[in-house]
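Side project, low priority. Logging it here so it doesn't get lost.
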Amino acid sequence: MNNSWNAIIYKGWAPIYDWIFDAGPFTRAREKIFTDIQFQPGDRILFVGVGTGADIDRLPDKKLSVTAIDYSEDMLQKARRKFADSDIQFMKMDAQQLDFPSESFDYVVGSLILSVVPDSNRAFDEMTRVCRINGTILIFDKFAEPGKGLSRSKKLLRNLIKVLGTDIGVSFEALYQRKRSALTLLSDDGIMFGGMYRKITLKKVP
């Protein structure tokens, strides 16, 4: 997995992405992302790896300041068309190197991005950096089962799936361990496929 390959892969995914990843169980899972989040008018929200904008539809109808980035121009074009009448700022950008000052956003949302980027540590570091103190990081993604290594069959499958632009072997626990001094884990809920897909809420602390 690298940025160049991902750009090619997601050019192919863009026309059919919503048919798969915003349908059925994914629709039900996405509906839970912002549950219990009390947004306030004017809150600054960053979508990291916004894709086709599937999660933006789930935001409450409030006056929020929304910025959305993705590395795939093809995915961004779909998102821009969906929200052509909005004031959402869409930008092509690498999640591993965000071009924003530190502590720029009240909420940082990462859906199905940490399992896609070549370096999930760098992306998670950047998400943490641009979140303000006492701000919230929301994650919806698939992660390896905590405390267990991948079976031989999953290791073989992992290499195949990486070719399709995603990784089933990313450990959230390993990501979080590196940032424990900066983040507090508020919730961690398995919401799809037996807990493989999780909704995780974190607070950035001083």
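Brief comment: The longest helix spans residues 152-163.
Revisit when time allows.
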